[in-house]
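Sanity check

After download, print the first record. It should look like this:
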Amino acid sequence: MVKNTAVGHKKFWHSFRFAAQGIAAAFKSELNMKVHSVLAVAVLAAAAFFRLPPSSWMLLLLAITLVLSTELLNTAIEATIDLVSPDIHPLAKTAKDTAAGAVLLTAVFAVIVGIYVFYHPVMDWITGFMS
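Expected structure tokens:
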């Protein structure tokens, strides 16, 4: 692990580089991060296709950010637990399961937001397509 020994502005910019490395590492190692990212791109493409208003975009971006952030935290918690407790332990399982539960909760929220945002535009599109 590289320690951030820079000072001033360099330290500030190094922190962004380290954060980007963390996001990249999670994307490379975690299937769920890849799945969530692909779904996020698909949702944003659908938002563009349906020309959703800015308020709907904000709801979608909030939901996407929550899911991806929670997935990053879950990855960090799992890595820490694996480092600290390489043996199977009930508390390690609880910590990992709880972190995964947080991801599930935010993913359910994202689905609810998606239904709320896309329901009327999709129904209008289907109605227009059928007539």
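If your output differs, re-run the checksum step. Summary of this record's structure: Residues 30-130 form a domain with the Helix Hairpins fold (CATH 1.10.287.3610).
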